[in-house]
Amino acid sequence: MAERGRGWARAVRGLLLDVSGVLYDSGADGGVPIAGSVEAVRRIKASGLKLQLCTNETQATRESFVRKLRALGFDIAVAQVTAPAPAACHLLRERGLRPHLLVHDDLVPEFAEIDKTNPNCVVLGDAAENFTYANLNEAFRLLIGMEKPVLISLGKGRYYKETDGLKLDVGAYMKALEYACDIQAEVVGKPSKRFFESALAELGVPPEQAIMIGDDIVNDVGGAQQCGMRALQVRTGKFRFPAAALAEMVPARDVAVAGACAASCAAAVDQGVLPSVCGSPARLKRPSDENHPEVKPDAYVNNLAEAVDIILQEL
Amino acid sequence: MAARRALKAVLVDLNGTLHIEDSAVPGAQEALKRLRSAPLTVRFVTNTTKESKRDLLERLTQLGFDIAEHEIFTSLTAARNLLEQQQVRPLLLVDDKALPDFTGIGTDNPNAVVVGLAPEHFHYEMMNRAFRLILDGAPLIAIHKARYFKKKDGLCLGPGPFVTGLEYATDTKATVVGKPEKTFFLEALRGTGCAPEEAVMIGDDCRDDVGGAQQAGMRGILVRTGKYRPADEDKISPAPYLTCESFPEAVEHILKQML
Q1: Which CATH class is domain B9-47+179-258?
Q2: Under an 8 A CB cutoff, do A179 and B147 touch?
Q3: Each residue of A28-50: pLDDT tens digit?
Q4: Quick check: A165 contacting B, CB < 8 Å?
Q5: For the segment B216-257, what is each residue's pLDDT rounded down to a tens digit?
Q6: Minimal Cα distance from A167: which residue of B?
Q7: Are residues A117 and A143 in the same domain?
Q8: What is the dihedral sign for C-alpha B29, B33, B34, B40?
């Protein structure tokens, strides 16, 4: 149940949705929709609310990303996706930068029109298997050899959840190159203000009439609030449950027993966020996204479906 | 100035101080013999991520140095000691050549992560594995945090960037075990019965050898060999206790002035 009444749900004209962890959990197999999300997107569209997806996804072009979402049952058009690569292309053109790309193979076509000869900057995306020592070293050597190194990072997320577990996101590798070269990267993507502003422009709604819904407390929720939007934290995707909920599970030795615990905990076990056997005290040390020290969401909701329920009731 | 206690121990850096790559610093073997004739405990301390104590000993013996294995204390030894103290089972992201220094340490079902210099391990799968362990509470232990190192064909990423990436992703801080950490120098003295005030460190790296030792309460002597560059001695405050041409000159000073 969402906290603090429902004042946050009033006077809304448009929604910005994060994708991975809100609409679906990604994975090598293409991923799986999060329960209720396909129906929630359908209801948003039927309600007349404006809808824009705001993603830091950089493992595919927008076209193939949208194809994947449509195959999962989400009725989405390419123009409804704001993603870092097109924004980066805009920035590269604006500043006459020629990138060396350390990105996922499937993202490369986004940069087809960009001059990449004799590179004078490095563009870093979530390169996944392309994050090899050799590739990182190549990017490092280019940067350290530049008079004024320019590193452009497509997002700076710490990690995300795939169907087979948590994975390091581009931010970890961005920090590695920053440290190696003693530089600061420029981030294109959430939580950059400019990126949210371009998503709002595409949504066609001013910030005070828009709500962002995401699973990343810092990059989704914090970033959107910085732009004057309201923002909701979902308890799906990479959301980490509070220690109190975990503590209840300590005596549990198997999933069957865990199932008797609080509903949110049981759901977490199903999603693999919580271990089925949580006897390890180390688990309890993991910080939670509930009561984050810096970011206070306008509300917590269990999932997108619950958020949409409440927002539509307030229309 | 506070009265100094009598000198009881000398810590000596290896590469750049006793030898440079495969050649000994002129006069260093003889100087070491003279140092050993005094009533002093001698330890050899080095940041290494690749070479096991056995490899180091082999090289030093070939160069004509009279050194025993138990006298060598490396950043790998420091990591091993920490693993034993914390009774944890590491995922070892270290070069295969360093593995002999971890003989006998259990690595099944790991609950700690040790990062050395291991380009062959710094890939997506392994980094994700390390990340998940740390997020689940496994301590992150870094042999050191060097940004990069030089190879014949150019600069190469060191362990530092990978440690930093893991720190960021998990919102934790690594325990760095090598020089210039204070605990490294204190651990090197463990078992000698000497307090830091009774020890002197000789090395060619102003920050990591001299600065680190002095932070730990020792005196530090900087030698102008190895990686030394003019004006290095101005890089730290307080300044080195002494700067001299080479290891043999440092030994002369110790024997004449510090006993």
Answers
A1: alpha beta
A2: yes
A3: 788 999 999 999 999 999 999 99
A4: yes
A5: 999 999 999 998 999 999 999 999 999 999 999 999 999 999
A6: B128
A7: yes
A8: positive
pLDDT exceeds 80 at position A275: no
CATH number of the B88-176 domain: 3.40.50.1000
User: Which residues is A33 bridged to in the sheet?
Assistant: A24
Identify whether residues A66 and A130 lie together within a single domain.
Answer: no
pLDDT value of position B125 = 96
pLDDT value at A270 more than 60:
no
Chain A residues close to B170, C-beta within 8 Å: 158
A41 in the same domain as A24 = yes
Tell if the CB–CB gap between B154 and A141 is shorter than 8 Å.
yes
Distances, alpha carbon B232 to alpha carbons A135, B14, B222, B229, in Å: 34, 18, 9, 6
Chain B hits for A130, CB-CB cut-off 8 Å, are 124
pLDDT at B177 (0 to 100): 95
Residues in chain B, overall count: 259
Q: Is residue A290 part of a domain?
A: no
What pLDDT was estimated at residue B3? 54
Domain ranges of chain B: 9-47+179-258, 88-176
A131 in contact with B at a CB cutoff of 8 Å?
yes
AA identity, residue A128 = A
**Spatial distance between the Cα atoms of A66 and A88, rounded to a whole number of angstroms:** 19
Q: Are domains B9-47+179-258 and B88-176 of this chain identical in fold?
A: yes
44-63 in chain A: CB under 8 A from chain B? none
